[in-house]
Design a protein that fits this description.
With 395 residues, the protein is an alpha+beta fold. It contains 13 helices and nine strands. β2 and β3 form a beta hairpin. α4 (69-82) runs parallel beside α8, α8 runs antiparallel to α11 (354-368) and α9 (289-314) packs antiparallel against α10 (321-343). It comes from Streptomyces ferrugineus.
Length: 395
């Protein structure tokens, strides 16, 4: 295995870092999160038109670049460094792979080129607070998270001209601005309930979307109400939706791990820059041994998380994304917390950017974790505890 990056991969990272450095500074970041869309449309257009970021991992036949999930993960490492608020995660990481995997040829032909060009944004809407469960990151996604056929969640009923959805979905990433919603819903009632995915236009009649106040303002979320909304079934009715969600979840975890590593690396860089400048007792605080030890520990954690994230991105489909994500989120939490502490009083204020990295760490754990459940799921999938129990019985 050659662990080095190709010239094309290095070029993607370099070009994207330069673009984000010039277009997504602290002032631009704050303006973007306060905008009605929750992101800067001009920046999104630049990422789509100049770099083809939304279509990076989509086939060329549908207008994509034809790269793998590895290139998308490396790109998200750079957006993570800048905490860039864009619909990239919701569109290219969550929604597009499901449409590519399950959609009919007509659906793929109609939607994927628009998603690849960035003219259409999309998101995955999972009932309740069960996004991590639906993606099989924190447990077996048996389908109960979608309502279980009982009241609550989102219910789908067949009508003469198609399907109708009724219910409410909370914590939908970019749900207030996405042009297309991929909605997970239960059909068939309690006796024969099954989870299906549906395509719903963001501006369809009966769709009520309200942007929510989120802990991490750089990841805008919305509550979406579906009031007898007309929907189109994604793919065929007999498709294995849960398996497709689990496969998309593993790839999403690898991408998220790289994104978290980028954020952790930048938080560490900012802290190192600060301790070199701030003086106490006539010398830079970075020269004190205690500070050096703390930052050395952070550095080791970030580098270990980077190795795990890169491997998960390379081995997409190997069900290691959740474990890499756990390590990356832990590294980001540690790096951002140490950054706030070592910045002193200024690190706690709204005027400084240090708190944004801590909120990203906490927000991602709420959405895709927590860390201990990600690790428990990985251990269960590997049969780690079963093997231990078998040895104990043998003894």
């Amino acid at each position: 295995m050659d662990a080095s990056f190709t010239p094309e991969q290095d070029e993607i990272r370099r070009t994207l870092r330069e673009l984000l450095h010039s277009r997504c500074g602290p002032r631009e970041l704050r303006a973007a999160v306060e905008a009605p869309t929750g992101h800067d449309p001009a920046l999104w257009s630049a990422l789509a038109e100049q770099l083809g970021l939304p279509g990076l991992a989509l086939p060329e036949a549908y207008g994509g670049v034809g790269c793998s999930a590895t290139e998308l993960a490396l790109a998200c490492e750079e957006t993570g460094r800048a905490l860039a608020p864009t619909p990239l995660l919701a569109t290219a990481v969550l929604a597009a792979p499901l449409i590519a995997a399950l959609g009919t040829e007509a659906q793929r032909g109609a939607l994927l080129p628009r998603l690849a060009s960035g003219t259409l944004t999309a998101t995955l809407a999972v009932p309740g607070t069960a996004l991590a469960a639906a993606l099989a990151l924190t447990g077996d996604n048996g389908g109960q998270w979608a309502g279980g056929g009982r009241a609550g969640g989102v219910q789908a009923r067949r009508v003469a001209d198609g399907w109708r959805l009724y219910g409410q979905v909370d914590q939908v990433l970019d749900g207030h601005s996405a042009g297309l919603l991929v909605v997970a819903a239960h059909a068939g009632g309690f006796a024969r309930s099954r989870t299906l995915l549906f395509l719903v236009a963001g501006d369809a009649a009966g769709v009520v979307r309200v942007r929510q106040t989120a802990l991490d303002a750089t990841r805008p979320q919305a509550r979406v109400q579906l009031r007898d909304v007309e929907a189109e079934l994604l793919g065929e009715e007999g498709a294995d939706v849960l398996a497709a969600l689990a496969e998309a979840g593993d790839a999403a975890a690898a991408v998220l791990a790289c994104e978290a590593v980028g954020a952790a690396d930048r938080a560490l860089e900012r802290t190192v820059e600060y301790v070199r400048q701030r003086e106490q007792f006539g010398r830079a605080i970075g020269s004190f041994q205690a500070v050096k030890h703390r930052l050395a520990d952070v550095y080791v954690g970030v580098q270990a998380a980077r190795s795990a994230a890169y491997y998960a991105a390379w081995a997409t489909g190997g069900r290691v994304g959740g474990l890499a994500l756990a390590q990356a989120l832990e590294a980001l939490r540690t790096a951002s917390a140490e950054g706030i502490q070592l910045h002193g009083g200024i690190g706690f204020t709204w005027e400084h950017e240090a708190h944004l990295y801590f909120k990203r760490a906490a927000g991602d754990e709420l959405l895709f974790g927590p860390v201990h459940r990600l690790r428990a799921r990985a251990a269960d999938a590997a049969g780690l505890f079963e093997a231990t129990d078998a040895r104990e019985v043998a003894v």
